[in-house]
Amino acid sequence: MRLKISLLKEPKHQELVSCVGWTTAEELYSCSDDHQIVKWNLLTGETSQIVKLPDDIYPIDLHWFPKSLGIKKQTQAEIFVLTSSDGKFHLISKLGRVEKSMDAHSGAVLAGRWNYEGTALVTVGEDGQIKIWSKTGMLRSTLAHQGTPVYSVAWGPDSEKVLYTAGKQLIIKPLQPNAKILQWKAHDGIILKVDWNSVNDLILSAGEDCKYKWSYALEKPNTGSIFNIAWSIDGTQIAGACGNGHVVFAHVVEQRWEWKNFQVTLTKRRTMQVRNVLNDAVDLLEFRDRVIKASLNYAHLVVSTSLQCYVFSTKNWNTPLIFDLKEGTVSLILQAERHFLLVDGGGIYLYSYEGRFLSSPKFPGMRTDILNAQTVSLSNDTIAIKDKADEKIIFLFEASTGKPMGDGKFLSHKNEVLEIALDQKGLTNDRKIAFIDKNRDLYITSVKRFGKEEQIIKLGTMVHTLAWSDTCNILCGLQDTRFTVWYYPNTVYVDRDILPKTLYERDASEFSKNPHIVSFVGNQVTIRRADGSLVHISISPYPAILHEYVSSSKWEDAVRLCRFVKEQTMWACLAAMAVANQDMTTAEIAYAAIGEIDKVQYINSIKNLPSKESKMAHILMFSGNIQEAEIVLLQAGLVYQAIQININLYNWERALELAVKYKTHVDTVLAYRQKFLETFGKQETNKRYLQYAEGLQIDWEKIKAKIEMEITKERERSSGSQPTKSTGLKH
Description:
Layout: E1 2-6, E2 17-24, E3 27-32, E4 36-41, E5 47-52, E6 59-64, E7 79-84, E8 88-93, E9 98-103, E10 109-114, E11 120-125, E12 129-134, E13 139-145, E14 153-155, E15 161-166, E16 169-174, E17 182-185, E18 191-196, E19 203-207, E20 226-231, E21 237-242, E22 247-253, E23 256-259, E24 262-268, E25 271-276, E26 281-286, E27 291-297, E28 300-305, E29 308-313, E30 316-324, E31 332-335, E32 339-344, E33 347-352, E34 357-359, E35 376-378, E36 382-386, E37 393-398, E38 411-412, E39 417-422, E40 432-437, E41 442-446, E42 456-460, E43 463-468, E44 475-479, E45 482-486, H1 491-494, E46 503-507, E47 516-521, E48 524-528, E49 534-538, H2 542-551, H3 555-565, H4 568-580, H5 584-593, H6 597-607, H7 612-622, H8 626-635, H9 639-648, H10 652-662, H11 666-679, H12 687-693, H13 700-720
Antiparallel strand pairs: 1-22, 2-3, 3-4, 4-5, 6-7, 7-8, 8-9, 10-11, 11-12, 12-13, 14-15, 15-16, 16-17, 18-19, 20-21, 21-22, 23-24, 24-25, 25-26, 27-28, 28-29, 29-30, 31-32, 32-33, 33-34, 35-36, 36-37, 37-38, 39-40, 40-41, 41-42, 43-44, 44-45, 45-46, 47-48, 48-49
């Protein structure tokens, strides 16, 4: 990826250009020490003078009123703030009329910025003051007073905090009085420029120490010093305010997208090159308008231009499906196997690969301008979106309708959520979402939520980035200094004890600091390091084959594969998969292979149970789902068995509650309770047990006979129901 520079032969300004600002992706305003404001149209290449400012106004900074948020009257978006060296800021209309000029600072006003909602303006100056103004230009408060000039300022993504410079220091100050201030040394020289990205929450700063972290490309145009730069709304073009009166433009080219054997490169603004690395075949894709965003996945290339969306199949690059966009500035494209998602300033839109509009999920306070691939996730049946107003909340929508998932309740976590990801394969009822919270803990939970509170289970700690495989439900993440793969994350729902045996880990120090997982395709994981370079890791292909066998119920093939590979991780995954699918014969083989003898014995005891209801209940107990096991038994009329599992687990309160409710086996519960207390030499203190034990003589012979009768009854009922096979269990 690099920038392609374009520069006019002659400058349009006579003096240095101090600031630039985009109104749309194709229109820019520039201000200069020659007092002129010039409008640039990048589609036609025309320039026009908007206004000549009074000779005593020397512009320093320019910022347009935000267009897409909180605005009912479009005219409000047609205004910008201009700060100047005379201590004033000016509200100027798009036509060049100065609507208002306000005395703001002693000395030059060095920067001015609207917040994201357009409800407030912050200015900073040579006098070291940071001031907050209303959108009409009335002073609200003086936020801070520094002893040195404040050169730059930026709003936090939530418009509740302000970031500003103080010599070599950066300071974040909340608007609320008495709130904690964050301050740190950021450079070895005076900091001149700062910005805060609302999408990824990163801060960028520049100072006189001339330090930078990395470089994708370097261009040295003949323009003198560059005093100000501004990215276009769609993030594909940049403009620079130059010391010799020029305005320099550059657009991003040579962006690359890869999927399996295809590599797509943006060679020009309106041209892409597709290369098939298997046969070296090359296709050129021409577009009517400038390419803004693209995504290549699931055998489809989706490209958005300034006006249209193109959908190409990797089987045929010649005849794309084309449809017009509601708004040109697409900021995000996400793909799943069956459909894709577009995000623009107006909303979120789901389309099929045939170009059919499917749904547009909405929720209160939705801000599409800050959504990214870490805060939105898409699968074949679900859309997940992290809330910005309350970052502990994840909204879940049905992909086909855009309506809230399940009973309409959102997913709520105890801490702020940083990154979310839906698994891509399997049935809707089994859909899982993994997410990382602000403590860098990784959690997994079910997407389908009906009434009962679904468990949110921790999978790992110190996880910085994650991704699901596109071919099966394998999860990978960068965990502190390790690259970790969870071959079967659902193990936490089945047998948490063997989860460590289902992991693959390797050292991740080669990826340097702050790496990010870009994709997980097949058995290849692509990681972007902090310097922008890509690193590819291949993991074992066998777990994916195991997933395929299990999803097709090919248990014999799965066992044969594990015997061939001879790895503990494979056997552990198969054990958990078999229990999850209630194939206890395979589970017994797999648990024996990893040396879990106690579990093999328990599985054997399950296989000898007289009824399938009892078997299912004990399988649920094996997975830790005690309540569900009890429900299965009670629905099948096996009240004694439901009481007995509570006795076995020492759930004495529940055991007695069931016995009293169903008026059976109260003496059995009291007998086992008495035996339990005698073993530990304790006296009964529970009031309910004392109440029911009063005047009752324990007769073990009678109790054993009753238990034997219950078992016989269950066995007879089970054998009697075999000819007329049950249609299924209510579960």
